Amino acid sequence: MESFINHEVQNQLKSNNIPLSSQFTIMYWIVIHKLKDGICLQEEYEFLMDLLLSHIMGPVFSIRLQAQYLSSRIFEANEISVNKLDNSQYAYMIKVINGTLQEIAKADDKSFKRLKNDYFIGEFDIIEDLIPCEIYWGLPQLVAALSNNIIEDDFLRNILNEIESNLNLDENDKFHNEWKEKRRKTSDALQFKARNKTINKEVESLEETGTIQKKYVPWKNMSDVDVYDNETKSNKTELIVVASLIAKLPNLGGMARTSEVFGVRAYVVDSLRHLQDKQFQGLSVSAERWVPVEEVRPAQLKDYLTMKKSAGYSVVAAEQTSTSIKLQNFKFPNKTLLLLGNEKEGVPCDLLPLMDHCVEIPQQGVIRSLNVHVTAAIFIWEYARQNML
Ligand SMILES: C[S@@+](CC[C@H](N)C(=O)[O-])C[C@H]1O[C@@H](n2cnc3c(N)ncnc32)[C@H](O)[C@@H]1O
User: Fold this and answer.
1) Which terminus in the chain has less CB density within 10 A, N or C?
2) Residue 30: how many other CB atoms lie within 10 Å
3) 318 Cβ inside 6 Å of ligand 1
4) Is the CB of residue 340 below 6 angstroms from any atom belonging to ligand 1?
């Protein structure tokens, strides 16, 4: 049997920008199942234990706590596993961790309570729950999506049927067989419908109470996605947002989020390394995983803009210049490349002659200019309003 939980898997998760705490949870659930089925390899067990233990004294409290808690639970799961693996090297460490966790619990620590009650740690099950009907239907219940935002039964049932008919697994593979079996159970149409009815009643009564906050559900726009075909139909605009001159990570992260929300075709930054930065990620809330991000260094901007112009794009600078058109009077061409200026210097003089248009937001106050992300958001919205909505 080949090892599955290893550096390769961790690197894949990392390269998909999966946050560390989610990396822990994903690997944790796989190892828990493998231990339960008695098929976990010593090297897989050790890989995850070593990974978690390397974080139990790290600088971030929540990660430290999660690493302590999960390592203790995995240790216990191994203790009762049918094919118990060698635990001796971890026994002392886990004893110390359990002591610490007991103290934290006694102190009624809020973070610890939150961790234990976290759905993905306490209840989520990577086998039973990672199925289309949980993803498209169960999880929306969790975030209290309204009934009119929940995906239709028939669409779901079709996906489930297709997956089942395409599953071609090795009969001897316990992990995959468990996966297949649980999928069958949950895809049982009657069970699904009965459950659907009860919860929908609750949601309806919530809706009757009047105006309530609505959560946008992205898959409403994705019903034409063919699950077996990576070439999904695009709901992207023809807008390219160039942020290569922007220096501050919160601005870059925020602009990534705005770009994703409005279906920007490409988001251009001066270095892809920013995507790994915590400040960037704090504002982008994972947008970089959904919007295509390109790297263009400021020194390459001239060539890049010229190339896009010859590909039919109109290059528009958001900038206050002596010849700028007011935003409310500007009609965005469908193929627009929007260039934002640096927080301090704005758009450099040597790039201005390359612009097809300079557009500004008229101001009334005393402060000289808007924050660049605020500017980008207003421009992107206006482009979407004119061309997409
Ligand atoms: C803080 S401003 C740059 C500083 C500005 N050149 C100055 O010295 O006041 C950063 C960028 O935000 C955008 N920006 C800010 N206010 C704007 C406005 N009213 N209209 C259009 N763009 C604006 C431009 O892209 C600008 O280059």
Assistant:
1) C
2) 19
3) yes
4) yes
Distance CA 241, CA 339 (A): 6
The three-state secondary structure class of 276 is helix
SS (H, E, C) 170-183: CCCCHHHHHHHHHH
Q: Please indicate whether residue 375, judged by its CB atom, sits closer than 6 Å to ligand 1.
A: yes
Q: Radius of gyration over alpha carbons of the chain, in Å?
A: 26
Do 251 and 372 lie in one domain? The reply is yes
- Ligand 1 atom with the smallest distance to the CA of 347 is 27
**369 Cα to the center of ligand 1, angstroms:** 5
- Rounded distance from Cα 342 to ligand 1 centre (Å): 8
Q: What's the number of CA atoms in the CB half-sphere (13 Å) around residue 9?
A: 17
Domain boundary among 184, 218, 252: 218
Residue 224 lies in a domain: no
Whether the model pTM is above 0.70 = no
Range of the domain at 306: 239-387
C-alpha torsion sign, points 121, 126, 132, 138: negative
Structure tokens at 313: 């794009």
Residues 138 and 11 both lie in one domain: no
Higher-confidence residue of 61 and 215: namely 61
Distance CA 337, CA 240 (A): 5
Q: Which of 2, 50, 42, 43 is nearest to 24 (CA)?
A: 50
- Domain final residue, candidates 188, 218, 248: 218
Tally the domains of the chain.
Answer: 3
Percent of the chain with pLDDT over 70: 73
Summarize pLDDT for 281-326 with one digit per residue, the tens.
Answer: 999 999 998 899 999 999 999 999 999 999 999 999 999 999 999 9
Q: Which secondary structure element, helix H or strand E, spans residue 264, and what is its range?
A: none
Largest CA distance in the chain: 77
